[in-house]
Amino acid sequence: MQSLQDQNNLIPRPRGRLPKVCAAVLSAMTIGGILFMSLESLFGWVAIVILILTLGSLLHSLCLLAEEIVNHSNTRHRGRGLLSHVMPACGLCGKTLLAAGLAGLLLYLVGHPLPHKSQSWKLIFLASSFYPLLKSLGVLGPSEVEVSELCEGRKMNVAHGLAWSFYIGYLRLVLPRLKDSIAEFCATHRARRWGRGSRLIILIPLNANISHKLNEEDDRIHFYDNLPNNEIDRAGVQGRVYKHSVYRVLDELGQAHECVLEYATPLLTLYSMSQESSAGFGEPERRQQVLLFFRTLQDILEHSLDCRNRYKLILLNDEHEADPHFLSKAILRNLEQQEKEEYCLTPTPQQEMNPFSKSSSPASNINGNRHCPDPMSREPTLMFSLEKPKSLKEPEENCEHYQGK
């Protein structure tokens, strides 16, 4: 059975700053070695290296600028300003120009490290001119990791768009109404114990292969009924219907547990894209996008006040497909965890009824009840002072003044 720790190990974390740290350490080690060997020409060599890198980047940006101006100024940039938009988009930004200017000034002040001044300039211009060629041919990157980091940092992946669409177009609309729908359902059905904070369980399988009938995946899961429909005016459709299905999940003892259960429907898009050769979206890319979808949706919902404590995301690892009851076990494990959380957060009746009762003290909660004694989990109560009311009038001085005679 997949544990919560295994689920956390599957989800990729955002990439950190380790490459920058390694690059800084490498540069420091190189400068330290040069300082140990020769201090006289250190600043000159540093200036030459910076000039080569910055001039090469600027020349490559000029090549990109020529393409954008000639072929894409109207279609991609729609006539926007050359200085304000097109040039920064091509990489001709102020930081690169500033770095090149400072490197040139440093080289002018400290002098050229090579015996002949012309040799330094030949090296600078020759290396800078080859940089755009190697960059255009893909020799100098970007690597697959850099592209992935760029797409994740700027929220440009397919998974980011699907997660936001799932939240904006569905979850943000239905989750705030879920509690009332469950209450109305329980009033008309003989449902068994249903937790006070029942949530919508959203299944996210790693292989993105979704079955439209859950009993075909696991014979311990049975459809019970639908919650009352929610009708919302949306995108010109009057009274668009949103519905949820209630399932009964049987444990090993045959006891039924009711819950609102469904798959994350955007995964159907990911799976269909992986089946189309024109999409260029294979199985490894699909798996990576599912993990990013899970992480992105989790981050969105955690910061949403409308959806807080109204959902539960379950990541299903397809490595356990051999177990015919893996799905029901994963659902029951999360239901059990949810009930434990609610049980700990539920205030005791004495705390709600009488704040002066002895049973409301932490000691009596520990000995007499099994509820969590954390005072932050109790309902707010009114506290009354037993002291007599005092006057708000300030005291007056009643002393006699001594008058010398």
TrEMBL record:
Task: Give the STING ligand-binding domain ranges.
Answer: 157-339
Composition-biased stretches, type Polar residues, lie in: 347-368
What sequence ranges are listed for the domain STING transmembrane? 44-155
Keywords assigned: Endoplasmic reticulum, Membrane, Nucleotide-binding, Transmembrane, Transmembrane helix
User: Gene3D superfamilies in the record, alphabetically?
Assistant: 1.20.5.5200, Stimulator of interferon genes protein
Catalytic reaction annotation: H(+)(in) = H(+)(out)
- GO biological process annotations for this chain's record? activation of innate immune response; autophagosome assembly; defense response to virus; innate immune response; positive regulation of macroautophagy; positive regulation of type I interferon production; reticulophagy
The protein's GO terms of the molecular function aspect are: 2',3'-cyclic GMP-AMP binding; cyclic-di-GMP binding
Which Pfam family, just one, is annotated for this protein?
A: STING_LBD
Q: Which family does it belong to?
A: Belongs to the STING family.
Stated name of the protein: Stimulator of interferon genes protein
The source organism is Eleginops maclovinus (Patagonian blennie)
